[in-house]
UniProtKB/TrEMBL annotation:
Belongs to the NhaC Na(+)/H(+) (TC 2.A.35) antiporter family. The keyword Oxidoreductase does not apply. Residues 171-479 form the Na+/H+ antiporter NhaC-like C-terminal domain. It is a multi-pass membrane protein. The chain crosses the membrane at residues 20-39, 46-66, 78-99, 120-140, 146-174, 204-223, 243-261, 268-286, 338-356, 376-394, 455-476. It comes from Dyella halodurans. The lineage of its organism: Bacteria, Pseudomonadati, Pseudomonadota, Gammaproteobacteria, Lysobacterales. This is Na+/H+ antiporter NhaC family protein. InterPro entries: Na/H_Antiport_NhaC-like_C, NhaC_Na-H+_Antiporter. Keywords: Antiport, Cell membrane, Membrane, Transmembrane, Transmembrane helix, Transport. It is found in: Cell membrane.
Amino acid sequence: MNAATPTPRTPRPPSYLDAVVPLLALVGLVGASVALFGLKAVDGPLQVAIILSTMVAILIIFKNGHTWEEVQESGRKGIATVVGAIFILLAVGALIGTWNMSGTIPTLVYYGIKLITPAWFYPIAFLVCAATSLSIGSSWTTAGTLGVGLVGLANMIGLSPAITAGAIISGAYVGDKVSPLSESTVLAAQLAGVDLYVHIRSQVWTTIPAGLLALVAFAVLGLNRGGGFNSAFTEGELARLDALFNITPWNLIPLLFLLGLSIRKVPASLAIMGAALLAGVMAAFMQPQAIARFIAEPDTPAPIAAIKGIWLAMANGFEANSGIPQVDALLSRGGMDSMLLTIWLIIGAVTFGILVDDFGMLGKLVTPVLLRARTIGRLFITVVATAIGLNIVAGDQYIALLLPSRLFKAEFAKRGLAPENLSRSVGDAGIVTSPLVPWNSCGAYMAAVLGVSTLAYMPFAIFNIAAPICTLLLGITGFKVRHIPIEPAAAAPGVHADDTPKARE
């Protein structure tokens, strides 16, 4: 008698306990890493916490009858979503290194000290970054280029790098949220099934109030910054920068080159790497003395020294070796290897997020909440809370855009709510809050390129805090909430009569 062939085990859906346990593990381990290591948590302990939380999720997935092959496939899908972000990070690391060596960042700092009034520095930083991000559609590029110079300038003139980083991020996310060149803006519109420019027009009603609030707040912070401006100290630093580098407007060509490529919609990683290489080549002609100090090999021929300098600046960053701590701290940065901790963090966070989504844990928790959102105001609150929660739990902006759009699109249609209401809510909550989470890919990126921890700049990212509040106010009050006709058969069960479009009008 032949042995019976084993029947394949049928996977079962997760229970509520299954859905909660990985999230509790994540919150507990992340909280412990921050409590034990403080701002140093992002140097490794936070990454370990996220990987361990992922292991907890995998054990529950196995318990429910899924195979390792399914877990691997889900993980591969998650990693594929951040390959572009990883290349951008590596390119930005290379760019910071060569822009320091070529004099691009020193020149930005030099002219910035000459031209910017310290009392108005924060609002100017916000406006400049907002204008740049609107023109190129990339918060990452804005922060990784202009932002680096502005934080360095703030350090040089004795202003708060945390407030400066908050102003930079606030301005950078204006464009990320409403620029037609922003992939986040395009994605938010596409996922909700709304025309891009209809989506952008709906975003104006939250972007302008949040932007004005941020501008006023940064003006107040600048005027009440306390402490005097040490012009003698600044003049000394300017003289030292002028001695170390050939300060000239020509050094800004890589910045203009990058802006031009971005406007022409060249992929961000290619545009940034191209600007990094151009800066390195320019350094060979414009800053040979800086390369010589960096390489510190007097017997090496100049062409070989230039090649080695470019190569090392892109790989490991530039070192100023000026002997002045403030100048060295400003200019000794960059390199692809400086982004490896951030990449580690992103890979762990995205893997965790995709697993808890693909295997039904997130849906298990969100569906009951959706059923209780019986009024339109509560529905908006649920959307915003879900998007922000996904930025925290999943650690990736795109997951925070994708999942709420998928989860709530049908519900908005059933209640006669135009799709731009959903795209606006998801954009305001999913896009702009992503840099406020230390282990989110956006938060990790901003902390890495600006050299300011997420927890330090978070209170000053005023636009990013105000935008979701503005969208909540619109949803609760019904102001600028557009309705569309619905068929009676499509009405959502449990929707109150006073929630219909006719009643609201």
